[in-house]
Amino acid sequence: MEGPPVNRFQIHVLTLSFQATGQIDVIGNLADFLTDPARDALILSQANLSSIPPGGPIRSMTRPEISIRKPEVSFAYFPEQEAQNQVRLLARTEELVLYTPLAILRGSVHMTAEARINDFLATTKTAYIPITQARLFMLIDLPFPFPQECALLLLNQQYVQLFHTP
Questions:
Q1: Bridge partners for 111 per DSSP
Q2: pLDDT of residue 18
Q3: pTM of the entire predicted model
Q4: Of 48-62, 121-135, 146-160, which one has max mean pLDDT?
């Protein structure tokens, strides 16, 4: 018997305290893997990690492997198109400006057909909100570059402080 496929993707992660890059081995579909309640962490291999803000307690380090608890991940970006193609997007989109502790971002938020803009967070069933055509305006200095424009960005909904239409 053969198990589900394993793909290795590049990943950029921001938490409130750390910035990390590395590779992640995804078993099966990326969207299912990220929302799997049995997996409480993202395991990055060949990882680079630095404190936010730059000059914090961890200036920069490289480790063969690190684990980042999924609830701590504010933003996740997968630069490879193959990874982005595995994220299911709902057909209805609304252009929103969202405010988080790390950044203000503007982009197309994908939501269910019956969701109203004012309560889409309450009706979102996943922790990570896919945002397409995302533009980030960082509120803090980062130790190394993070994409400011992303075709697809995953935002942990627990870090959304407020939002509005443009």
A1: 92
A2: 94
A3: 0.91
A4: 146-160
- pLDDT band at residue 151 using 50, 70 and 90 as cut-offs: very high
Q: Which two tokens stand for residue 125?
A: 């069933």
The CATH code for residues 85-164 is 2.30.30
**Residue 95, both tokens:** 């252009």
Across the chain, which distance is largest between two alpha carbons, in Å? Answer: 51
Kindly report the CATH class assigned to 6-82. mainly beta
Average pLDDT of the segment spanning 138-142? 93
CA distance 88 to 68: 23
Q: Distance between CA atoms of 154 and 166, rounded to whole angstroms?
A: 20
β-pair type (128-138, 162-164): unpaired
Query: Which tens digit of pLDDT belongs to each residue from 106-136?
Result: 999 988 778 788 777 777 777 889 999 999 9
Domain ranges of the chain: 6-82, 85-164
